[in-house]
Specification:
single chain, alpha+beta, 5-stranded antiparallel sheet, 5-stranded mixed sheet, 6 helices, 18 strands, disordered C terminus
Length: about 525
């Protein structure tokens, strides 16, 4: 129990201390005045910081190059008249300046050049381009007045070196508390923008006097030296600047714009002194045609504007562009048009037919020659009907005409009833009988005597051999079957040979070209 109560007591005390710390921080923040603002990105010189619609951009390229010509100068400015704290009895005051290490002049063609920016009572008064002519301040109000002057570039950037600025306070008739800044305190002098502008980006520039360096102010946080910042507000949009450098802004609206610059310390409080809180009203009209507007837009080159930083520089005169004389246009020769040769048509290749040709002789295929404008068409070959091969039938040997015709004898053709071997033997039998018959007729009776041919008379017909019909299925020729005689004589015995009797019948109406002879076996 004791341990638990002890932990509760410690937790309660820590909670009370935390609540007190929060309350103290809240009160401190309420009394701090303005909250911390985002820093400008001008440390790098080229970064762009977007603050609502107003943004910081890099200086124009032509200005960055022209700066190099002015870096060799460390101007020293002095006010010779009026004297510091002098009381004058005239409302018109003649002011004289002394400038060292900076040529003060204005280019006659471009209307710009290094000059002195003069402010009276924190208000722009004049730009001095000739220090040999005194500057007259007219119709001054009685009282105390402060005159400020610093060296500026042709595009309004102030020189930041020691001695580039000077100021004096004088009085008209009497002294007053107005327009009398404390020389021991930091002082902010508003320089730009002011007046009218015809192009973006627009320069934001200021001059600081008696402002401590950041390293010295930040070395010891317990000392009385406070660091400084510039709070800039453009059309209600604020941002902080902690570097003494010129910056270029974009995002201004056409017409009236207001810009406010405030010098504040590291706690956000305004540093008390005259002119440390200044507001200017400017007029922005795009597409201005003055030299500065063209320079900001990049319409003028460095070669064309170097005269605003170098008095001895002579810009090269533009050479007139010679106008070319019109040359007669030569007549165009007509180019002969080469007629393209017609493409040689390819000889159509006739595909061979897959069907075998039945007959060796076929009609030639008619080929249509293609024309140059038409696609050649291949005519299908004609299909020739196969020619029937008629096997020639053997014709009878022409015989001599006989005076009388023999009536036709009916020939009985043998029918094939057996096998091919039986047919063969049957034909062989007929053939043997026929051969025996021929031997009987032709062979002479007496072998020693020469054979004598029978006498041919007109009445005796010449025997004609009739060839039997050849069977279609047999590829070989078979000896003709001898005709069957009308009367079959009896077979002779083996012991004797007798001449068979021949019976010849002559038909009355037998054609002369055909005769049939029958022999008896």
């Amino acid at each position: 129990m004791i341990g638990i109560n002890w932990h509760r007591t410690v937790a309660g005390r820590l909670l009370a201390l935390f609540a007190a710390a929060v309350l103290i921080l809240g009160l401190a923040s309420c009394g701090a005045g303005h909250p911390e603002l985002p820093k400008s990105g001008n440390k790098s010189g080229s970064a762009t910081a977007q603050v609502n619609k107003i943004s910081e951009v890099s200086p124009p390229e032509a200005i960055q190059q022209l700066r190099q010509a002015l870096k060799i100068y460390q101007p020293q400015i002095s006010i010779l008249n009026p004297k510091p704290d002098e009381v004058l009895q005239d409302i018109n005051v003649s002011v004289q300046f002394q400038v060292k290490d900076l040529p003060i002049f204005k280019d006659a063609n471009l209307g710009l050049g290094p000059h002195l920016q003069v402010l009276l009572d924190n208000q722009p008064q004049a730009a001095v381009y000739d220090i040999n002519q005194p500057l007259t301040l007219s119709d001054l109000e009685p009282g105390t007045h402060t005159l400020q002057v610093f060296a500026a570039s042709p595009w309004e950037e102030s020189f930041k070196n020691e001695g580039a600025s000077a100021q004096t306070t004088f009085h008209i008739f009497t002294k007053t508390d107005d327009n009398n800044p404390d020389r021991t305190l930091p002082l902010l002098t508003y320089n730009s923008p002011q007046g009218s502008y015809g192009a973006e980006p627009i320069l934001l520039d200021f001059y600081l006097t008696n402002a401590p360096q950041h390293q010295v102010a930040q070395e010891n946080s317990q000392d009385e030296i406070l660091d400084w910042k510039i709070r800039a507000t453009v059309n209600g949009q604020s941002f902080a600047i902690d570097q003494w450098q010129p910056i270029y802004l974009k995002g201004f609206k056409p017409g009236k714009n207001w810009v406010q610059l405030e010098l504040i310390d590291e706690r956000g409080n305004i540093v008390k002194n005259a002119f440390n809180n200044t507001v200017r009203l400017i007029d922005y009209e795009p597409l201005g045609q003055d030299t500065l507007s063209k320079l900001l837009r990049g319409e003028l080159t460095v070669a064309e504007t170097r005269g605003i930083v170098d008095r001895a520089y002579q810009a090269p005169e533009p050479k007139p562009t010679p106008t070319p004389e019109p040359q007669p246009t030569p007549a165009l020769e007509k180019t002969p048009v080469v007629q393209p040769l017609p493409a040689v048509p390819e000889t159509p290749v006739t595909q061979p037919s897959l069907e075998p040709a039945v007959a060796p002789a076929v009609d030639p295929v008619q080929v249509i020659e293609p024309t140059p404008t038409a696609t050649p068409q291949i005519e299908a070959p004609k299909i020739v009907e196969p020619v029937k091969v008629i096997e020639p039938t053997p014709t009878a040997i022409p015989q001599l005409e006989t005076p009388k015709t023999v009536p036709p004898v009916q020939v009985i053709e043998p029918t094939v009833t057996g096998s091919p071997e039986a047919k063969k033997q049957e034909y062989k039998g007929y053939y043997n009988r026929f051969r025996n018959f021929l031997r009987q007729v032709v062979a002479p009776a007496n072998p020693s005597e020469p054979p004598t041919l029978p006498e041919i008379t007109e009445k005796a017909p010449v025997p004609q051999v009739i060839a039997p019909a050849i069977p279609e299925k047999s590829p070989n020729l078979v000896p003709p079957t001898p005709p069957v005689a009308a009367e079959t004589p009896s077979q002779p015995s083996s012991g004797e040979l007798s001449t068979p009797e021949t019976t010849v019948s002559q038909p009355e109406n037998q054609p002369k070209s055909e005769q049939k002879v029958e022999f008896a076996t």
